[in-house]
Amino acid sequence: MPLQQNLVIFARLPRMGTGKRRLAADVGAVEALRFQRHCLTATLRKLANDPRWRTWLALTPRAGGMRHAKVPTISQPRGDLGRRMGAVAQSMPFGPVVIVGSDIPDISRRHIANAFQALGGHDAVFGPAADGGYWLVGLRRRPRFIDPFAGVRWSTPHALADTRAKLVGHKVALVETLDDIDIGADLRRHLQRSSAR
User: Fold this and answer.
1) 16 DSSP assignment
2) Among residues 140, 132, 24, 163, which one has the least CA distance to residue 92?
3) Cα(74)–Cα(63) distance, rounded to whole angstroms?
4) Under a CB-based contact definition with an 8 Å cutoff, are residues 96 and 145 in contact?
5) Which pLDDT score is estimated for 117?
6) How far is CA 179 from CA 30, 73, 129, 166, in A?
7) Res 66: pLDDT
């Protein structure tokens, strides 16, 4: 019997002032909240119903403020992003886990399927972002869990390199580069690309 594949969508509870603070500083709190809600809803719609994996929604500050009919909702623990991702990854049922953000407008089922496929022959997989971070991380978690997230310089151009440095000696794959939306310039680029399609 194949192992269960676990997809975790990391998100901040979509409420005024609780998430997308850097984006809000550039475009205003109302527009940032509108984008956050739209992108989270679209991400769940695209990814949650695929039978190839079980989808989880990991929320911060707590899961009680939002529910999705088909997606189990869990709370992210306290701590920096690395501590939260490591704890959630370890808490998943046995099998590979892929974690993505909820602010990647171009994400698709194909991207997730490619990441799980890569974990068949690799210990970890990353979806690089153009800013030096990553929009996806996946871990095989066998024969043991490897936590590559401690000491990473989050929200910097070094995030991917720092995380990969913890995986020296392990097989690491990369999937397609996509953009996550962190600041106003990211959102403007996304809107320009969308209108040109």
Assistant:
1) T
2) 140
3) 5
4) no
5) 98
6) 22, 25, 5, 23
7) 63
- Peptide linkage before 2 cis (omega within 30 of 0): no
Instruction: Using alpha carbons, list the distances in angstroms from residue 32 to 35, 103, 130, 149, 189.
Output: 5, 11, 21, 27, 15
DSSP E strand boundaries for the chain: 6-12, 54-60, 73-75, 97-101, 124-128, 134-139, 172-174
Domain ranges in the chain are: 6-196
Output the pLDDT for position 73: 92
Rg (CA), the chain: 16
Average pLDDT per block of 10 residues along the chain, 197 residues long:
88 82 89 92 95 95 65 92 95 96 96 97 96 96 89 94 96 96 89 80
Please give the structure tokens belonging to residue 92: 């998943």
pLDDT of res. 63: 58
The backbone torsions φ and ψ at residue 62, rounded to the nearest 5 degrees and listed phi first, read -160, 160
CATH number for the region 6-196 comes to 3.90.550.10
* Amino acid residing at 35: F
Token pair 């990473």 is at which residue? Answer: 152
For the chain, the distance separating the N- and C-terminal CA atoms, rounded to the nearest angstrom, is: 42
Cis preceding linkage at 143, omega within 30: yes
